[in-house]
Structures are given as C-alpha cells and as structure tokens.
Write a structure and sequence with these properties.
Blueprint: E1 3-7, H1 15-27, E2 33-37, H2 39-42, H3 49-65, E3 74-77, H4 83-92, H5 97-101, H6 104-112, H7 118-132, E4 138-140, H8 146-163, E5 171-173, H9 208-216, H10 234-247, H11 251-256, H12 261-287, H13 290-319
Parallel strand pairs: 1-2, 2-3, 4-5
Helix pairs in contact: 3-12, 4-7, 4-13, 7-8, 9-12, 10-12
Bound molecules: adenosine monophosphate and tryptophan (TRP).
Length: 322
Amino acid sequence: MRVFSGIQPSGPLHLGNYLGAVRQWVDAQSSDAFYCVVDLHALTLEISPDALREQTIDLLATLMASGLDPEICTIFIQSQVSYHAQLNWLLECVSTYGELSRMVAFKEKSQRQEGYRVGLLTYPVLMAADILLYETEEVPVGDDQRQHLELTRDVAEKFNHRFGETFRVPVGTQPKVAARVMDLQEPTRKMSKSISSPLGKLNMFDSPRDIEKKITKAVTDTDGEVRFDWPKKPGVSNLLEIFASLSGETPAQVAARYTRYGELKSDLAALVIETLAPLKRRHDELLASPDELRRVAARGAEKAAAVAGMVYQRAAAAMGLA
Ligand code: AMP
Ligand code: TRP
C-alpha cells in the first residue's frame, strides 16, 4: 500500500499532531511509505529563515523519535525534491480560483492576515502535488485535512479526464479516536499550533510539570459526571478520547472506570507523561547529531525523487510540455 503524508515545520508538535497524524504514520510505515517535512508550505506563515531551518531539522528528529525509521520508510524534506514545486505549477493550471477560495482553512487564515499572500490560496494545490507525485493510495491525516484531500481527489480526476490517466486518486484516512484533538481550554475548537493559548495546547515535549498543569486546568463542565458525550460534554469527551487513544481502549470504556474528573485527569496526566518521556529523550539525542539528520534527509530525498521524477515526467508529457 503506497502511503504519503506531510507535516509543516511550523513549531513544536502538539498532542493533536501526534495522535491525529504521526502515530498513524508510524503504524503505516513500510518500504512503500513516504513522509515529508513540508517546508515550502511553511513559507505561507510568518517565519524567519533561521527559525524555518531549525524547525525543519527539529521536526525530522521529532518524527524519528516518534518511531519513524528511515531504514523502513522514506523521510524527506519537501524543498529538496524539486518536482513538488514543478508539479504544483502544472496543477495550478487545472485548479480554479473558485474551488480554492472555498477551502475553510483558506477562509479562516486569510481573515486573520491583512494583505495575505497568494501562497495561502494555492496551498492545497501544492499539497495535491505532494500526494499525487507518489502514486499515493492512502494519506493518513487528522480530521482537519479532509477538505484538502477532497480537493486533491478532484484535481487528480480533472487532470485524468482532460489529459488521460496520469494520477492515482488517493483517499485520506483518519484514526478511529483522536482524529480531532480539541483545545484544552476551548474544547469546541481544535488544538492548533498557531491559535491555541499555551494552556490550551499540549506540546509533545512539554515538561511533566506543564503537562500535569495543563491537564489539571483543562476546561470540563459542572455536572460532575464522567460520560462520553461530545455535544453535551466536549471538555470531558476530549480528555476521554486522548486517554483512549493512548491506552488502546474506547472512550466509553475509559469513562466507565471513573466517577470523578480529578481522578480521570491525574491518571491521564500520568499516562501522557509516561508515553512522551522516552520520545523526548530520543528527540534530544537525535538532535545532538544534526549532520546525521541531514544525511537521513538527503538519502530520503534521493529515494523520493526517483518516484516523483517518473510521475512528474508523465504529467508534463500528458500536458504537452516538450
Ligand atoms: P499541521 O500542524 O497543520 O501541519 O498538521 C499536521 C498533521 O496533524 C495533519 O495531519 C493534521 O490533520 C494533524 N492535526 C493538526 N491538528 C490536529 C488536531 N487538533 N487533532 C488531530 N490532528 C491534528
Ligand atoms: N496541509 C497539511 C497540514 O496542514 C500538511 C501537508 C502538506 C500534507 N502536504 C501534505 C498532509 C500532503 C498530507 C499530505 O497539516
């Protein structure tokens, strides 16, 4: 099964990134899996060149510390495989302004930035290029990427219809639990790298003290009953999903063991700390050898380019490029 997914080097990963995306990547890794640090996408953010460079290497270390093994799968940096930017242009010429301006992520982000740049609008076309270059069948992502996946499918189908069978049409996959981890302070909004407040967002490498503090202060409700019920009890349901995702149970099974919020929270904090502590240690070890991380990326880029080059040439030829 050919698998592809990507993640932006836009700062430390939070628990939503880990449970919604990265853990699925680890489960799906094989010689047929390609995982990409999408630094070109991160250029749509306000980010300094030095920070981008540093965060890109840091994210490689985070992915490997989470269990991705470059001996098993391909891990690479988007900008090191030039076909992504090249196919992006070809696909921009089959995508419409209308379909891109309907994307919810674009509508939200463009409202927050005055004089937003064109890259924010065309962001999902580059994402489609990422995916289609690898003849991808499955794209493991969190729930917030569903609409972008639909656009990718539409673009592929449109291209195939107009220029002949060129791209495989992929599907997105979400984990059964924790596909949308919510902000701990505002549990009706997703946990987000950019929008969540420090207390609302649990970073993978927060200190045990911070993890405990954030979970203890997580917003719940006043009826005091531990029950899995998203519409009526989003705060508690969020904690139950996080717990279940880490313990391998269902949220209802976890709920059945608890009668008090306090106990649920302290056991959850212990479980999160226990899960993430070894990852943090591994991350710090890996980051101590940045040259080795760069070698991993270079090898990954070479493997990725071998596949992407073939598909790019096919698309370019189909469109009539010489
Ligand atoms: P991003 O941080 O936007 O680069 O997202 C990287 C990956 O994490 C994508 O697959 C997202 O769908 C996933 N993701 C981001 N936020 C969450 C969240 N709150 N819950 C679950 N998955 C998420
Ligand atoms: N848009 C994705 C996000 O914000 C990141 C991404 C870029 C991606 N290219 C991709 C995800 C290709 C999956 C496949 O999370």
